[in-house]
């Protein structure tokens, strides 16, 4: 990886950063190996923490659970995140609408209020995903009639009985993903919903909530055909209805998977003069190449998430509207819930690499997800590896959680870090501390980083925090416990303590005037903190 060189490091650093493991240290002289020069002479460039502005979660119902809100609090404390995005604010389980005996539609927003009241009480705002279709107004006739089929004679000598069949849905909770039977009913729902939000929470508050129309209409969560044309019709009606209630509200889409339709969407809304305030899409590192179809570009880094984000950004810019912000409302290393990516050590340096490579591409990137309160494929069977969450349902931190907590400590000004800074992020914080993230994605070999600071009088007092296979993970204790499927409260507390982000330790090889050597174990992430210089 560009910019790093193997250098001499003392055994104390090895013991500190590798959890006691021992690797051979080459007897190469410092003078023979170029250092990574971090230039602290200037103020640096803006470094917006876009990766921690928002996090994803399952569906609206889950926001009413104790574990969800507890994990939301812990994630907000660790990252300062502002928005949460989830599916299903209009799902049938939210009970928002039903016809009366005369066929007139009535709205009931009590559960909606409970969800949003709870989030706001925990200092988190919704990034409102307008989904899915209430069965009362969807185009699935069976579901619109309450799931009752015509009377059926199961046996010739028995009375005819109705049967219930919700096969028209998707995901474990059978979300209705059909087109509205009558667009006027959908528009009326959107109008009533938005007006209710402003009446309850105030227009100034709700104007800070982005409204995103649907979720992944290019995939299984939209069954209308043709997909793009019918989604555009839904978006047009939704956006115009929202703006009719309050022109200052923000609305966007297409919320597609694998950056699909981005250019088509922008072309459509501009051609048809449809309101749009942001463009949204999703990307995962393991999206199949034939699904993603990334064009070759010299700007591509080999990081799928950031290369795709860059491609989406270029598609917006080509439309002649470079002022439109791009929101990546879902991203992650792995879309497969069964792979357990969030609890494995490699995720920490992967997150750091993605933060590095995606810098400046999108003001909001929402990681999927912050909590294992997640039931798209059913109730998660095991505490670990669990689902995509940064935290298990008991609140046990995974390496992914600790990576976000560590990177949160970076500053908001990025400093130059050599000509090939592929594995280092150097920043200055508002308190004057120089915070430098370093990582090693190699699964087999340790690496040494030799840092030289320009513009600092001294690096004395520097500290380091490390996440690796032995630090910031519950893995060893979990194995010793026999991998309990559902830990007891006592076991969960012990696992939480074992997985806690390590405290800063003295960086013992930062004693020279302006240089530091840091050893990085395989699949590790480190944060070096150099104290503010006296003025």
TrEMBL record:
Q: Which Pfam families match?
A: Glyco_hydro_39
Q: Which InterPro entries match?
A: GH (IPR017853), GH39_as (IPR049165), GH39_cat (IPR049166), Glycosyl_Hydrolase_39 (IPR051923)
Q: List, in alphabetical order, the Gene Ontology terms for molecular function in this entry.
A: hydrolase activity, hydrolyzing O-glycosyl compounds
Q: Where is the signal peptide?
A: 1-27
Q: Which UniProt keywords are given for this protein, alphabetically ordered?
A: Glycosidase, Hydrolase, Signal
Domain Glycosyl hydrolases family 39 N-terminal catalytic positions: 36-139, 169-500
UniProt lists the family membership as follows:
Belongs to the glycosyl hydrolase 39 family.
- Name of the protein in its database record: Glycosyl hydrolase family 39
- Organism whose genome encodes this protein: Gluconacetobacter asukensis
């Amino acid at each position: 990886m560009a910019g790093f060189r193997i250098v001499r490091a003392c055994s104390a650093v090895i013991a500190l950063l590798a959890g006691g493991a021992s690797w051979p240290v080459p007897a190469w002289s410092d003078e023979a190996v170029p250092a990574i020069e971090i230039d602290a002479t200037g103020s640096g460039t803006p470094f917006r923490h876009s990766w921690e502005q928002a996090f994803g979660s399952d569906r609206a119902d889950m926001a009413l659970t104790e574990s969800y809100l507890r994990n939301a609090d812990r994630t907000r404390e660790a990252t300062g995140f502002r928005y949460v995005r989830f599916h299903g604010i209009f799902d049938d389980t939210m009970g928002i609408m039903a016809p009366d005996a005369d066929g007139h539609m009535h709205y009931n927003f009590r559960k909606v209020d409970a969800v949003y009241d709870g989030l706001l009480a925990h200092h988190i705002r919704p990034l409102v995903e307008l989904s899915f279709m209430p069965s009362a107004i969807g185009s699935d006739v069976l579901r619109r009639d309450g799931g009752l089929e015509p009377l059926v004679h199961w046996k010739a000598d028995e009375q005819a009985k109705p049967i219930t069949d919700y096969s028209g849905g998707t995901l474990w909770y059978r979300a209705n993903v059909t087109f509205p039977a009558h667009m006027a009913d959908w528009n009326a729902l959107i109008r009533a919903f938005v007006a209710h939000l402003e009446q309850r929470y105030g227009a100034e508050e709700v104007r800070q909530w982005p409204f995103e129309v649907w979720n992944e209409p290019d995939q299984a969560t939209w069954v209308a055909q043709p997909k793009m044309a019918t989604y555009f019709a839904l978006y047009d009606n939704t956006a115009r209805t929202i703006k009719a209630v309050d022109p200052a509200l923000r609305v966007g889409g297409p919320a597609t998977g694998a950056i699909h339709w981005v250019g088509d969407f922008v072309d459509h809304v501009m051609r048809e003069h449809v309101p749009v305030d942001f463009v949204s899409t999703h990307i995962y590192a393991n999206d199949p190449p034939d699904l993603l179809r990334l064009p070759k570009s010299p700007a591509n880094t080999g990081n799928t998430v950031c290369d795709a984000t860059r491609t989406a950004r270029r598609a917006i810019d080509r439309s002649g509207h470079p002022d439109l912000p791009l929101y990546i409302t879902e991203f992650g290393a792995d879309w497969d819930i069964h792979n357990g990516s969030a609890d494995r050590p490699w995720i920490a340096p992967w997150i750091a690499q993605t933060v590095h490579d995606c810098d400046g591409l999108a003001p909001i990137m929402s990681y999927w997800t912050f909590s294992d309160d997640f039931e798209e494929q059913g109730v998660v069977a095991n505490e670990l590896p669990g689902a995509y969450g940064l935290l298990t349902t008991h609140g046990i931190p995974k390496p992914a959680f600790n990576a976000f907590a560590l990177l949160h400590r970076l500053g908001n000004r990025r400093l130059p870090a050599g000509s090939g800074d592929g594995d280092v992020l150097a920043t200055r914080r508002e308190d004057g501390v120089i915070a430098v993230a370093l990582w090693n994605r190699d699964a087999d070999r340790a690496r040494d980083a030799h840092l030289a600071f320009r513009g600092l009088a001294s690096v004395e007092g520097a500290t380091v925090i490390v996440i690796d296979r032995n630090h910031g993970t519950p893995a060893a204790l979990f194995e010793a416990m026999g991998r309990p499927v559902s830990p007891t409260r006592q076991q969960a507390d012990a696992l939480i303590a074992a997985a806690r982000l390590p405290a800063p330790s003295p960086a013992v090889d930062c004693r020279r005037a302006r240089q530091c050597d840091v050893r990085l174990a395989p699949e590790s992430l480190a944060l070096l903190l150099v104290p503010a210089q006296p003025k």
